[in-house]
Amino acid sequence: MSTTEHATLAIDGMSCGHCVASVQEALAGVAGLTDAQVSVGKATFTATEGGSERVTADAVKAIERVGFGAAPAR
Fold it and tell me: Where would a tag sit more exposed on the chain, N or C end, judged by fewer CB atoms within 10 A?
C-alpha cells in the first residue's frame, strides 16, 4: 500500500509569475513528487511512497539549482 505525505517549502527570492514557472519546472523533474502547487513565497506538494524526507531534500536542491532559496516551512 502506498502512502502520501504533504510538505510545504518556504521559497526565498520569488517575486513574479516567471519565478513561479521556473520553480514549477524544476519541481516537475523531482521523482516521487506529485501535485506540486507553487505560489510566490511557497511551494506545497505531495510525496508518494512515504519518502517525503528524501523528496523534500530533492525538491530543495532542484529549487536551489534554478536560483532560489528553499527550506521546509515552519
Answer: N
Q: Which domains does the chain have, with CATH numbers?
A: 4-72 (3.30.70.100)
36: Cα within 13 Å, side-chain hemisphere = 26
Mean pLDDT, each 10-residue run in order, the chain (74 residues):
74 90 92 85 69 83 94 82
CB 59 within 8 A of CB 33: yes
Q: Provide the β-strand partners of residue 48.
A: 4
The half-sphere exposure of 9 on its side-chain side, counting CA atoms within 13 A, is: 32
Predicted TM-score (pTM) of this structure: 0.84
62 near 26, Cβ under 8 Å?
A: yes
Q: Where are the beta strands (DSSP E) in 1-74?
A: 4-12, 33-39, 42-48, 69-72
